[in-house]
Design brief:
8 domains, 0% helix, disordered N terminus, Immunoglobulin-like, mainly beta, six-stranded mixed β-sheet, 811 residues
């Protein structure tokens, strides 16, 4: 958390009057206050360190050396401390050397001096550091908070010794706002820092630097920012504005402004011997946006010596716990020539630390003055030097600078996550509390440390597996600088356990599937890292813990998870029957999701064939058995169905008889039979045998005898009686020749009739005879010509051929 330093200087306006007459004034003990170093306006909600310098502003001329040993500050409501609930605790306050926190009553803080401190008298001051957290800022111009301050000469308090706040002088206030740019004003020098009470022409130059306030270092010291140019400053002496600067004090490009004035002519007149606080102030500037806040510098002293002898004390700086060299210059006369051989006594916070003699230049040097026990910081007027011969005392500023510190921090080594936490410790060389910070809060966190001697211990809590990085740091304080942070890393890993993967081979189901995983640690579970899976395949698996902080091991903690292809169910569902001459369509059912190709087969069936899904009958008298096969796809194996029997039906054919009625011919008769389609084999089924000759009615029938057709006929075959007629089939012709010789016969056209000699050749009358018969289909006797020839005898020559034409018989 950023720490903002807020300097609060309570300026004592040390006015004391010297007159030629004796003044018997009443008890007039007062103090006044104001904030310094640009902190009169501050952002809200921030840490701040307030520098509170309290001045003894007594004006009782009868008792100019009355001193203060008790200071009480009331912190306004809204400001909080570092204790529980924002309460103030002793560590929130750093009193000056020799002082301590006496009591804390809510927001009322009381400081007391450890011993009687006569040096906190008129015109002197002490600085108290108040560490506070400012209230939340409101809108511009913010809220103003006043810090009441009281003092007392007694460490026990008491009304009679009280230093009240100077009436009419505003209380020290801080405006907490969110709309100003804070400024930082430093009074760099007072040159010379000592003058005489005589010689009105003596000049003193005050130099101050104005910048923005960039922030504060780890111990709360302001950090100057950008120089502010062309801003007017007001310089004061003893709390009164110096109006006699030779030129109007205005900052240059470096933020520096000067005021050269003649102190003996004002603002304090007469200017009697003593020490006077000079300071500078900046009222702020409302023109820029955001506007510049006002600020006041800390003080530096101007010493006014009553004689021609002056003693100038140089500021000193040294490391905390170390030593410083104190120097003072003793000079005299108008030319302020160094005075040698004189003893100068040096003091720190009013306590003598030794003496030294001035050299030829009037410089007294006291080496190796211990500042052990003085906290780091800036202490105005903490150093004093006295030249007893002329009763001259002057003051200077002591700066105690922080010294270095180192941290020794060793990491705890690698840890197992289930352990939950581990203790760590670091040693600080100056025994300050070390702050541990996790740089990897997603891996580990670290608690607040506890200081025991020089060792700070804390607990690191584990958040997740990984590399934990812890930095040990110490931000320092006013006495010790920031330590170099030390970072240690260590691994937070898993504890080993035995994991067993099982159920490593399963069948595809279309759903997610995983191996089972078990451990040997109660309450700790595991899983396969590459599961669940859906599709068939081989998957490398490693067991991983489901409980943070464990690592799986063991021979069964890895393996191959196999999802085997499922065997589908395929069934032929049709056709139930197919008739010869027509076709059927093969159908099937298949396990849902199977994308394989389905084919059909009739196998060794002799009764059918299948092409694609078309089933044809090849022999209806045989059998038909179909199977369906599916090829493998990504999820299912190949499979073949059980045989499916298809009923084969013969086609109907026609038996077509003809000539079922015939006329008796005397020959064997029977009907003619054909089939449609033609050429089919028939089996006779009639009760009467065929063929038949005689007239009658006969039971006839035929059945088709074919592998692929069926059909039959049953009926009556009828032979009816024939009509009679008489037909001359032949005639006998007789002829004789004159010679009595044999006569031969022949047909004029054998196609129409034939002529055949009888046997014997003659009849009883001695006539030669022959039988004439119609030939072929000729029934017309008139077309028949019979020829008779006699070849001759020894006594007769051949007779001319005789011709006879027969006529048709009478009907």
């Amino acid at each position: 958390m950023k720490r903002l330093a807020l300097s609060m200087t309570i300026l004592g306006v040390a006015w004391w009057l010297w007159t030629v007459r004796t003044i018997h004034a009443s008890n007039d003990r007062y103090i006044v206050a104001q904030f310094t170093n640009g902190t009169s306006q501050e952002p809200g909600g921030a840490n701040a360190t307030l520098d509170l310098t309290v001045f003894n502003d007594i004006r009782n001329l009868s008792y100019p050396n009355h001193f203060i040993q008790w200071i009480q500050v009331t912190v306004p409501a809204g400001f909080t401390g570092s204790g529980a609930g924002g309460a103030f605790v002793s560590s929130d306050f750093i009193p000056p050397a020799g002082w301590s926190v006496s009591s804390i009553a809510g927001n009322v803080i009381t400081f007391i001096s450890a011993s009687t401190n006569y040096t906190f008298n008129a015109g002197q001051s002490r600085t108290f550091l108040l560490k506070v957290h400012t209230p939340t800022a409101t809108a511009c111009p913010g809220t103003t908070y006043a810090f009441p301050v009281l003092g007392n000469q007694s460490t026990n308090g008491g009304n009679g010794n009280t230093y009240k706040y100077r009436p009419g002088v505003p209380l020290a206030t801080v405006a907490v706002t969110n709309c100003v740019t804070p400024t930082y004003l430093v009074l760099n020098s007072v040159q010379p820092n000592a003058i005489l009470t005589t010689g009105s022409s003596q000049t003193v130059t005050l130099t101050a630097t104005l910048t923005t306030l960039a922030g504060h270092d780890p111990v709360g010291n302001p950090i100057p920012g950008t120089p502010l140019q062309n801003e007017p400053l007001t310089f004061t002496e003893g709390g009164l504005a110096i109006t006699t600067c030779q030129a109007v004090p205005q900052t240059n490009s470096s933020g520096i402004a000067t005021c050269t004035y003649t102190p003996l002519t004002g603002p304090i007149t007469p200017l009697v011997a003593g020490n006077y606080d000079d300071s500078a102030s900046f009222a702020g500037d409302s023109v820029p946006f955001p506007p510049y806040g006002g600020s006041n510098s800390s003080t530096k002293q101007l010493t006014v010596n009553a004689t021609a002898t002056s003693l100038t004390v140089a500021d000193a700086s040294g490391p905390y716990g170390g030593s410083v060299t104190l120097t003072a210059t003793l000079a005299s006369g108008a030319g302020q020539t160094g005075v040698s051989g004189q003893t100068i006594t040096f003091y720190l916070n009013g306590s003598s630390v030794g003496s030294a003699s001035t050299n030829n230049s009037g410089v007294a040097t006291l080496n190796n003055v211990s500042i052990a026990g003085i906290a780091g910081g800036t202490y105005p007027a903490y150093i004093s030097a006295t030249f007893a011969a002329d009763a001259i005392t002057n003051y200077a500023q002591l700066v105690v600078t922080p010294v270095g510190q180192t941290i020794t921090f060793n990491g705890p080594g690698d840890q197992a996550f289930p352990n939950g936490s581990v203790g760590i410790s670091a040693t600080d060389s100056v025994s300050l509390l070390v702050t541990f910070t996790s740089n990897t809060t997603n891996i580990c966190t670290v608690g607040t440390g506890t200081l025991n001697g020089s060792m700070t211990s804390a607990t690191v809590s584990f958040v997740s597996i990984g590399q934990c990085s812890i930095t040990a740091s110490q931000s320092g304080n006013s006495s010790y600088g920031v330590a170099t942070p030390v970072t240690q890393t260590f691994n937070i890993g898993n504890a080993a356990m035995t994991c067993t993967l099982a159920n490593m081979s399963v069948i595809y189901t279309g759903l997610e599937q995983s191996p089972t995983c078990s451990t040997n640690v109660a309450g700790v579970s595991c899983k396969a890292n590459n599961a669940p899976q859906i599709s068939p395949g081989s998957y490398p698996e490693n067991a991983v813990s489901l409980t943070a902080g464990y690592t799986c091991s063991g021979p069964a903690s890895s393996g191959t998870f196999i999802i085997n292809k499922a065997t589908p169910t395929i069934t032929v569902t049709g056709p139930g029957s197919v008739t010869y001459g027509s076709t059927g369509t093969a159908t099937y059912t298949l396990t849902s999701g199977d994308t394989g190709t389905v084919t059909f087969s009739a196998g060794s069936s002799s009764g059918c064939s299948v092409s694609g899904t078309t089933v044809s009958v090849t022999n209806a008298s045989s059998t038909c058995s179909l199977t369906a096969s599916v090829t493998a796809d990504s999820n299912y194996t190949a499979a073949t169905s059980a045989a499916f029997l298809v009923t084969l039906n013969k086609a109907l054919a026609l038996v077509i008889p003809s000539n079922l009625i015939q006329t008796y011919t005397g020959s064997s008769l029977q009907p003619s039979v054909a089939t449609a389609p033609a050429g089919l084999s028939l089996t006779y089924t009639g009760s009467d045998s065929l063929p038949r000759t005689d007239v009658g009615s006969y039971n006839v029938g035929w059945a088709i005898n074919d592998n692929n057709y069926y059909g039959s006929y049953s009926g009556t075959f009828q032979i009816t009686g024939a009509a009679q007629s008489i037909t001359f089939q032949s005639f006998i012709v007789a002829a004789t020749s004159t010679s009595g010789g044999p006569v031969t016969f022949s047909s004029g056209d054998p196609n129409l009739c034939t002529v055949t000699a009888t046997d014997p050749a003659t009849n009883q009358a001695g006539q030669y005879t022959a039988v004439v018969t119609l030939a072929g289909s000729n029934t017309d006797w008139t077309k028949c010509k019979v020829l008779a020839d006699q070849a001759g005898t020894p006594n007769y020559s051949a007779a001319p051929e005789a011709t006879a034409i027969l006529g048709n018989p009478a009907p």
